[in-house]
Structures are given as C-alpha cells and as structure tokens.
C-alpha cells in the first residue's frame, strides 16, 4: 500500500470516530495554509463533523474571501483539550505560536499534513511530502486516497494553496502532476477568478506606497546578481501600510533582469526578518540556514533577534563570501 493510502485510511478512521475535529493555522498564515484549511474545513463538514477552526493570528485581507476564515474561533476561547487536531502546512509546532503549541500538545490525537523538507513529523499521524509544491498538493492526494469528492469551495481552497505556493506556477517544484491536479480542480468547479482578483489584483494603496518606497531604494550587489531590499520600521509608519504589506516585495526584487537572488530585510520591533528568492542556480536554504532559518531552494526565510545594521552587515559579508569570491 502506498504511503498516502495508508495515511488516508488512518486519517479517515480517526475523523469518523470523532464528533468534533479541530484544525489550526500557523502564525502569519499564508495562502497555502488558509487555502488548505478551507479545503479541510469543507471535507470535515461534508463528513458531518463539527469543526473548530482555531485562530491564532489575523487573516491577511487577500485571503478573507475564503468562507471558512469567517468561522475561525479565537484560541483563548477554547478551554477543553481537543480530541482530534489537524495541522496543515506547518513545519513544526512552534509555528502555532506559544498558545497554539500548548493546545496542540494537549490534544488527544494530532495530525500533520505538510510539504516542508524540515518537517520533523511532530504529530501522532504525519503525512509529509517534501517534493510537493504545496500542502494543497499533498492534501489533494490525501482526499483522492480517502475517496472524498471535492466541492467547488474545497477546489477553490486547494487552488488558492497551490497557486500561491508555486508563485503562480513559476517555481521549479511544479510538475505535470501539479497541472493535472489543477485540471481536476477546474473540473470540480473551482472559482479561479475570485482567487486571481483577491490575491493578485487587490493591492491596497498603502501597500503600493510601501512597495514604491522600499523598491526606490533597492541596492544591487555581486555585479547585479543580487538585489537587496530593506523595509525599515519608519517605512511602515510613513505609509500606514498594514503589517503584511511587505508581502510580494522580494519577488519584485527578484524579477529584475540579471538578478539571480533577491534578499529582503524587514525590520521589526525586536528582530529582523530575512527572505531569500532565487531564479536558477543559488540555493536559498543555504543562505537562510546561516541565520537559523530554512525553506525551499527557490524561497527561504529566517529571523534574527538583532539590529538591522548588524544583520545587514552579516548579509553583505555572506554575499561576498558565497557569490563574489566564488565567481572570481
Ligand atoms: Mn506551503
């Protein structure tokens, strides 16, 4: 029996035996996380279960179109340990935040469905496929193995997940199977237009102002092979942009002729967040791991509890060491 089939059978049995099923997002939830949760929400409802959708952070405006996001309950209102709790697109239990992690540890039985290479199989039942583009792609295969029929809403959730985690099907991880799954999502009635409008064509004016400000100060290193974008606390304040408005800046910095890798530094009150994106030969995880982070070859991230100036100096030294010296 295939790994997915065995997992799917166990999961189906656990769900059938449960009256109430919890699902939990991670901190700073993204499209793969919220889209996969939308699909799981629909699956559990279709199986006649009461679902508790645990909220441990705000939903970015781009993803508020997913109907299940309106059903989220604040984590502080959940007093009893959950019998069954399912996590999606979360590489480890710290991703749930401290309250979420405590809730996860107290749950009687936990499930982890994911695609991060660094996932350490932290739940009682785990399905991790590191080659998959997205958790949406993993979940599609799990549903197929469970014999679950996709509703249009579930298909829209999975489309959101796969589309956002592949950079609209641009990443190397995309395969023929990815597109065959997308074809099946169209057949199941996914609303592709609402995803495009909400996720790709709804930039707020505050976000646009922030992107313009940060990109106007873009720096280049290593003969233009590396671009470096920096968002300081005052950039956020001056533009009044929402906290997730930096999303998309690093991709714009990468999408420049001659650039192989873009690095984005976001100054926060007590730390600096780093994002890396590459096009074809630099491995982003190699850079992110220097700062204790991780991710995928073409997209990785990290955070440092240090000043922007110190992190910037480290980044510049790293680029010199790994690229400028190597290319000589
Ligand atoms: Mn993902």
Automatic annotation (TrEMBL):
The name this protein goes by in its record: Bifunctional oligoribonuclease/PAP phosphatase NrnA
SUPFAM superfamilies registered for this protein in UniProt: DHH phosphoesterases
Enzyme category, top tier: hydrolase
Keyword list, A-Z: Hydrolase
GO-annotated molecular function: 3'(2'),5'-bisphosphate nucleotidase activity
Organism this protein belongs to: Aedoeadaptatus acetigenes
Domain DHHA1 per the UniProt entry, residue ranges: 233-320
Domain named DDH: residues: 21-162
Documented EC number(s): 3.1.3.7
InterPro entries associated with the record: DDH_dom, DHH_sf, DHHA1_dom, Oligoribo/pAp-PDE_c-di-AMP_PDE
């Amino acid at each position: 029996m295939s790994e997915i089939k065995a997992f799917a059978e166990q999961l189906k049995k656990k769900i059938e035996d449960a009256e109430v099923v919890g699902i939990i997002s991670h901190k700073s939830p993204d499209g793969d996380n919220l889209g996969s949760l939308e699909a799981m929400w629909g699956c559990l409802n279709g199986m006649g279960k009461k679902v508790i959708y645990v909220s441990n952070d705000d939903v970015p405006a781009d993803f508020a179109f997913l109907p299940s996001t309106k059903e989220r309950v604040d984590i502080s209102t959940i007093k009893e340990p959950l019998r069954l709790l399912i996590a999606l697109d979360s590489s480890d239990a710290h991703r749930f935040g401290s309250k979420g992690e405590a809730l996860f540890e107290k749950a009687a039985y936990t499930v982890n469905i994911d695609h991060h290479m660094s996932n350490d199989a932290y739940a009682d039942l785990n399905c991790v496929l590191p080659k998959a583009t997205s958790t949406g792609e993993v979940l599609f295969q799990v549903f197929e193995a469970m014999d679950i029929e996709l509703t249009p809403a579930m298909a829209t959730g999975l489309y959101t997940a796969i589309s956002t985690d592949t950079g609209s099907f641009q990443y190397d991880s995309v395969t023929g199977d990815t597109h065959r799954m997308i074809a099946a999502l169209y057949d199941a009635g996914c609303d592709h237009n609402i995803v495009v409008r909400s996720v790709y064509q709804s930039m707020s004016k505050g976000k646009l102002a922030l992107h313009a400000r940060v990109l106007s100060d873009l720096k280049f290193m290593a003969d233009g092979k590396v671009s470096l974008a920096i968002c300081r606390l005052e950039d956020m304040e001056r533009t009044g942009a929402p906290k997730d408005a930096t999303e998309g800046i690093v991709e714009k910095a990468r999408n420049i002729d001659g650039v192989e890798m873009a690095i984005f530094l976001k100054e926060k009150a007590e730390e600096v967040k780093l994002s890396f994106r590459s096009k074809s030969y630099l491995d982003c995880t190699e850079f992110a791991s220097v700062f204790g982070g991780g991710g995928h070859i073409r997209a990785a991230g990290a955070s440092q509890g240090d000043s922007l100036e110190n992190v910037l100096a480290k980044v510049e030294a790293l680029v010199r060491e790994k690229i400028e010296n190597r290319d000589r």
